[in-house]
Every structure is written in C-alpha cells, then in structure tokens.
Amino acid sequence: MARTVQKITFAPQIPKALRVAAYARVSSGKDAMLHSLAAQVDFYSTYIRHHPGWEYVGVYADEAKTGTKDSRENFQRLLADCRAGIIDRVLTKSVSRFARNTVTLLETVRELKSLGISVYFEEQNIDTATADGELLLTILAGFAEEESLSASENQKWRVRRNFEGGKPWRYFMLGYRNQDGKLSVIPEEAEIVRTIFADYLAGDGITAIIKRLNESGYSTQSGHVFHKSAVERILRTYAYTGNLLLQTKFRDNHLTKKTLKNNGELPKFHAAETHESIISMETFEA
C-alpha cells in the first residue's frame, strides 16, 4: 500500500496587540498647567489609538501632585492595572513626570519589568525594554532628584525670607484676603469670626456653634458649610489678633514632604501689628 503524505497548512498567526497605556502629570493646578495636562492626555490617546499593533488601554493623569509621593491617585491606579495584567507597555513624557525619587522610580520600573511591562520615557528616549535602558534611567533619575532637592531648598529660602520680613505664608483665611501682599479684612467674614469667638467664650460647644453657623446660612472662605475642623482652626488662628507667628510648621525633607510641628527644630518669627486685627489679644488668650 502506497504511503500518502498530506500537506497540512495552518492559518497565519495574528500577532497579539500590545496593550499600551500612558501616564501624565502636572505639578501645578494653574490653568496653564491643566491645559498642558489636557494636551498630554489628548496626544497620548490619539497616538496610541493610531499606532499599528497597539491596543489602547487609557491615559492615567494626575493634577497638582508632586512626583515624590506615592499618593498620586491615578498613578496608583496605573500600577494596580499593571499588576492585574491588563497593560503591556507604559508611555510617559519624562523621568521627572513619572517620579523624582530615584528609589521609587527604579523600584517601580523594576517591578513593572518583572511583570513583563516596559516603560518608555519620551523626552529622554529611554525604553526599559532595551538592555541599556535601566542604566540610563538610573543616571537621569539621579539628576531629577537633585533638581527636586534644589527646587525644594529654593522654595524654603523664599519662605524663610518672607517669614523674616513678617510676611504670612497663607493669606486665604476666613475674615482676610491678600491685598498688595498684606492681610486685608473682609468685614462680613470678620463678623462671623467675632461671633465664633464670642459664642465659644460664652460657653457654647463646637457642635452648637457649627449648628448655628450652618442654620444661619454662613459658609467658610471656600464657600462650604462649617465642620468641626474649620471652627477649631479659626479658634487657633493667632493672625486674628493682628499679629503673626510664623514657621510653626515645616516640611521634613524634599522626598516625603511630610509636614511637622516646629518644636524648636527651626526658628519661629513673631511679627507684631502687621495687619488690622479682628479680635483682641485678650479674647484670643481667654
């Protein structure tokens, strides 16, 4: 019996589309920066959708968050989706937009690499899928961290110079607004402040004061209803006496940016009669 050989043909295998996402961030909430963020989102959305062999997953964007923290909501959502296995590649504008902390940056990139996910940094033209990608990334991340430290120190210098000159760090509070670099009284809001102090000294509790304020239709300087924290902050605000106590808090370092109470680690500055008072010193200290 003659042996027959039959040729079997297979349908050509269609390459699996690469699932691609992008991450964008701006470090300021100003309109110009938010416009820049919107432009980044639009660019990456269009670019990924029209790239052959790519499947669009989404653009993860954070507004006004520092690159040194792990609290960026959409950055954390991006990482969660990467761990869930729905992303193969991440695009981002630059090293500093992704993270300025070298340790955090490299830990994140290495974790993603272990999951089979590559990251491409457009501005530096670094692709972690390549052999020399991580080496270049380490060098550039070091420069980015130094830049973050320098910016932080410059900001601290400006703030301390203002403190030494008796200028407040915060102008926006109930009863006052910034007018030519000084605290200017807003009469209708100042009356609310006086009422809060008067009621508290009369023996009313915080809860009763909040209830009366909200029932009267009053609101905070941001236009919100009053809560416990808002009333307590007003009762603690020394600036209502017309004087300023400056640098009562400070940031521990440029990486964590954790705010700490100043217990003598740094000098405090007392500036007397810098603006019109809303309450007397006797009322504040009562």
UniProtKB/TrEMBL annotation:
Domain Resolvase/invertase-type recombinase catalytic: 19-166
GO molecular function: DNA binding; DNA strand exchange activity
The Recombinase domain, residue ranges: 173-286
Any Pfam family hit: Recombinase
Gene3D superfamilies, per the entry: Putative Large Serine Recombinase, Chain B, Domain 2 (3.90.1750.20), Resolvase, N-terminal catalytic domain (3.40.50.1390)
Protein name (record): Recombinase family protein
Originating organism: Trichococcus flocculiformis
Lineage: Bacteria, Bacillati, Bacillota, Bacilli, Lactobacillales
